[in-house]
Design goal:
Elements (H helix, E strand, L loop, with lengths): L1 H4 L4 E6 L7 H5 L3 H16 L6 E6 L9 H7 L1 H8 L7 E5 L2 E2 L1 H7 L5 E5 L2 E2 L5 H10 L5 E5 L2
Parallel strand pairs: 1-2, 2-3, 3-5, 4-6, 5-7
Helix pairs in contact: 3-4, 3-5, 5-6
Length: 148
């Protein structure tokens, strides 16, 4: 499969929590399952070295009392920020992402187009992000910020 993904230039991923009709099934998910799911996403992205455009969307399902596995899944972006090289990435859309100021700041680099909607910071503030955008992103041609 990795051979077929080497030439991919654009990818869109829309994700949400694992769902089960029985709540007790969800509550029993081991934390390793959530981590395994996020690791699989980073492996997939790392198989696409020519990726120029990435759209990541997390669907918030209004689930209360998240299990650790579900929390790990919800923070999939943190693993992407840590383990996926984005050297060729020029266009990025982030929707519904849960992350920290630090992870988001690290991820923002040389984009020409950046859309961020419904971003939720678990720690930090958006001020340093906005300062970085205004001072360091000289190649940025399109910016859309919505519902922070």
């Amino acid at each position: 499969m990795s051979e077929s993904l080497k030439s991919i230039k654009a990818m869109s991923l829309s994700l949400s929590h694992q769902q089960s009709k029985r709540q007790e099934d969800v509550q029993m998910l081991a934390p390793a399952i959530g981590r395994g799911n996020t690791q699989a996403i980073t492996c997939l992205l790392n198989m696409c070295p020519k990726l120029e455009s990435l759209h990541l969307h997390w669907y918030n399902l209004d689930i209360f009392n998240l299990t650790q596995a579900q929390k790990d899944e919800q923070h999939f972006f943190d693993r992407i920020a840590d383990f996926c090289p984005i050297g060729r990435l020029k266009y990025c859309t982030l929707q519904g992402i849960h992350t920290s100021e630090q992870k988001l700041h690290y991820f923002l680099r040389r984009f020409r187009s950046l859309t961020m909607e419904q971003i939720r910071l678990d720690s930090g503030t958006f001020r340093p992000i906005f300062e970085y955008l205004s001072l360091n992103m000289r190649k940025l041609q399109y910016l859309c910020l919505d519902d922070f």
